[in-house]
Amino acid sequence: MAAPVVRVAEHAGACYGVNRALGLVEDALDGAKGPVRTLGPLIHNPSVVAALAARGAEVAEDCDLPAGTTLVLRTHGVAPQVIADALARGLEVIDATCPFVTKTHVAARMLAEEGYQVVVVGEAGHPEVEATCAHAPGALVVGSADDAETAELGRRVGLVVQTTQSAALLAEVVARIAPRVEELRVLNTICDATSERQRAAASLAEESDCMVVIGGRNSANTTRLAEICQSRCPDTRHVEQASEIEPSWLIGKRAIGVTAGASTPAAQIEEAVRTIRAATGAADPVGRQAGDA
Questions:
Q1: pLDDT digits (tens, 9 = 90+) for 37-86
Q2: 292 found inside a domain
Q3: Which domain holds residue 156?
Q4: What is the CATH number of the domain that holds 159?
């Protein structure tokens, strides 16, 4: 049987916000006089977080750290009072919040100041959603169309979205809320990188008989990619790293697609492609090369 064709999604892997955050930590490790810590996991990629810890950038759960410590804020953002607390303790604060997440925070705060009841479309308990709600105290989190149907809403509602959510979910929630309120203002804060990765993954999955999705299981955007792929290619596998790929998954496959979440560095995509090629005898991947932006 001929070796399968391996294709990497046109848009896959680490986004601008993740690469920026990793660069900020690298700079801190090179230049900080005191210890370096990240406030919570910098990104939702356990292997990357472990590698940073091994280099000295360990995870701190709170701001209770010695004065002079360099504290890097995670890409998902934090509540304003957390930054104030860190500065009051004499910490050197580096804000690695993704700029697209910051945009969501600003939007939520603006809507609250203008008198709207703020609704955040997203995953309750997710760090990004919690940080967004902290910028608009009293905000309501809606995770599904059913949640939107039963939510207690005021007359004027302002809506923002977790950056890694799908446009389809946003549309469903808007359709449920709009008939129930007098005024609905929607600020679509889904980031472009998320939308690009979802569209590319969907397109590739439709042409594949096996999909491998690489990224942390605690990563919302990677999990969503896996769900999108699963709906189009039933044989979809979500792995955190290449060592989890089983050769038995690939037997008899003609077209194998590879994509990765926005917290997955290019090196992890490349390693997964090498593993698939070694197991199947496939040639170099077709189309986009692992590691391209």
A1: 999 999 999 999 999 999 999 999 999 999 999 999 999 999 999 999 99
A2: no
A3: 100-186
A4: 3.40.1010.20
Distance of alpha carbon 134 from alpha carbon 148, whole angstroms: 20
CA-wise closest residue to 67 among 47, 92, 44:
92
C-alpha span between 76 and 99 (Å, rounded): 10
Beta partners for 255? 5
Domain count, the chain: 3
Report the residue count for the chain.
293
Task: Mention every residue, 6+ apart, whose C-beta is less than 8 A from residue 188.
Answer: 161, 167, 170
Distance CA 237, CA 225 (A): 11
Closest CA to 215 of 17, 4, 15, 5: 15
Residue 159 tokens, joined: 């809506």
pTM: 0.87
Catalytic residue set: 128
Q: DSSP 3-state helix, strand, coil percentages of the chain (rounded to 5)?
A: 45, 20, 40
In a domain, 293, yes or no: no
User: Contact at 8 Å (CB) between 45 and 100?
Assistant: no
Which CATH number characterizes residue 70's domain?
Answer: 3.40.50.11270
